[in-house]
Amino acid sequence: MPTLLPPRVDGVSPWLPWLAAISLFMETLDATILNTALPSMAASLGESPLVMQSVLVAYVLTLAVLVPLSGWVADRFGTRRAFLAAIVLFTLGSILCAASQTLPQMIACRIVQGVGGALMLPTGRLAVLKSYPDRTSRMEALNFIALPGLIGPVLGPSLGGLIVEYSSWHWIFLVNVPVGIVGFVLAWRHMPQLREPAARIDVPGYLLFASGVLLLSYALEMFGEHRLSIAATLAMAACGIASIAGYIAYARQHKAPLFPLAIFRNRIFSIGILGNLLVRLGSGGLPLLLPLFLQLAFLYSPAHAGLLLMPIAGAALLVKPTVVPLIQRFGNYRVLMLSNIAVGAAIMALAFTTPQTSNLYFVLVLLAFGAAISLQFSTLNASALSSLPAQYASAGNMLLSTAMQLALSMGLTFAIVVLSLFLGQDFHPDQGKTFAAYHHTFITLALMTWASGLVFLLIRKPARQTTRPA
């Protein structure tokens, strides 16, 4: 369990873990506080709520593309300089987001935020890992850092709803400013300037990998928004696939590629990557769909919708300590299969709601969803990382982090694509058609979740091993 105070070690500022904790809190709060505000933001920017997923996807994709570079930047320029630059970019991006007048402006400013976010958290963690000499103090510091990351998603939806209802959506971004200023001052005084000889970065491999990720994600988003012709969208997707294929061919010949292909010979790790990508297609869009559903179908206020979403993060927080005991008791395979069934069942339960559905029904369903999704991905990621030999630990962690961000982006976009197909061209449907479209979407996502769980059959037998939740 996360500790309430960071460990004290001679020669290490006690503020260092607080800096990493603040960065994690800012990122996790920002990832959830926007969800309940999207309908209000859409109305203010003159857009349909169904295109507002671009605001979320732009940030997540920026993280996916730039996180692999964070270690090199920290080693090249030092942890202190990198961390200060990251806070400045994240805070500046927040201010620019609040000042945005159009959706394209908002997307561009979210990318600026994402550049800061991609560098801020990895650099803070790296400084902690290098500053604490022994395993015990290092684990205590990392556990302390984890606590704000668990609290942020609990506060995010309700805080976002309250801000929108009693002020304006602009303050959702402006709340980052005082936190960023405090973080900058503390980092200026207490963040150590740790540097290592920076290894040469694999520029061709990185460009091939990053362009493939961006093209595939953008093609999926354009398919949902109908901004490009089918031919242009398919051509973009084909270029993305060709770029990924080009990276695979390049990595086979390169002595030190960005992601060594040998890492995929580990079956459990490969299942972890594939499982993240497939399972999140079904469940990854719920944080976006639920606020829209509650506000557009049930006509709930942003504050009401935000409060109803709190059980997801609350249940995830409570389940976290049970992951290791459950893995030890039942094995990875059974935990993954049963949690996947529970995730799909919770999504399916949303398809049976009516205008008369009580708040208690939502609370119970979302508690089940939050607990199951936390158990599923904690087990999946812990199994993947713990199965890697030491020489692949760093590359595996970086690749898994990238895959998680990419999978989240794909899940958000896929959910909107499905919803758009059921709504058709009617962007202002009556309540009956709105309910029907969301119900059909939830059914589709539940079936997708259950189908994607078949990937876990590749784990031929339960792996009874001690792992730590990711």
UniProtKB/TrEMBL annotation:
GO CC terms of this entry: plasma membrane
Cellular compartments annotated: Cell membrane
Keyword Transcription recorded: no
Transmembrane segments: 50-70, 82-100, 141-163, 169-189, 201-220, 226-250, 271-293, 299-319, 331-352, 358-377, 398-423, 435-459
PROSITE patterns tied to this protein: MFS (PS50850)
Domain Major facilitator superfamily (MFS) profile: 16-464
Top-rank taxon, per record: Bacteria
GO MF terms, alphabetically ordered: transmembrane transporter activity
Keyword set, alphabetical order: Cell membrane, Membrane, Transmembrane, Transmembrane helix, Transport
UniProt-recorded name of the protein: DHA2 family efflux MFS transporter permease subunit
InterPro entries: EmrB-like, MFS, MFS_dom, MFS_trans_sf
Entry membrane topology: Multi-pass membrane protein
Keyword tRNA-binding included in the entry's annotation: no
